[in-house]
């Protein structure tokens, strides 16, 4: 199977708000292969998260590292995710991005967030996340809204 190339800046798809997906399409399995491809591309590129636009797809979907998902007991795939709450408490940690190779910058983010999304069965869910998981959610949700870490400096 050909490796999915990671879309890099200055690609326009990284700067736009992505299209939401339909729960019926999730339920009928339309995205199963895409999710597998995204996970593979993320792992091959040593990422901990990957948004659909990072492989050139205009869809509001992201995946996260399977170990992070297992550790936190959360799904690996997220459809139409939206952060509905941010904690006032924040911290600043250096982040990188697969779409901006060799670029690392300290990014200030909330320590805790509430994420609303649909899972791989098309069910609506909410997750309270903290720490590293909250940071991944914020980074990947940024991608779906057309932001990259360079916009956060």
Structure write-up:
- This protein is α+β, with helices and mostly antiparallel strands and 153 residues long.
- The protein has one domain: Alpha-Beta Complex (Peptide Deformylase).
- The protein contains four helices and seven strands.
- A five-stranded antiparallel β-sheet has the order 1-2-3-6-7, sandwiched between helices.
- A hairpin with a 2-residue loop joins strand 4 and strand 5.
- The protein is globular and about 40 Å long.
- The mean pLDDT is 96.
Gist of the model:
This protein has 153 residues and is α+β, with helices and mostly antiparallel strands. The protein has four helices and seven strands, in the order ααββαβββββα.
- Unreliable residue runs: none
- How far apart lie the N and C ends? 37 Å
- The CATH class is Alpha Beta
Number of domains: 1
Strand order of the largest sheet: 1-2-3-6-7
How large, in whole angstroms, is the Cα Rg?
Answer: 14 Å
CATH superfamily: Peptide deformylase
Give the SSE map:
Elements: H1 23-27, H2 32-44, E1 49-51, E2 61-64, H3 66-72, E3 77-86, E4 90-97, E5 100-110, E6 112-118, E7 124-130, H4 131-144
Provide key terms for this protein:
single chain, alpha+beta, Peptide Deformylase, 5-stranded antiparallel sheet, 7 strands
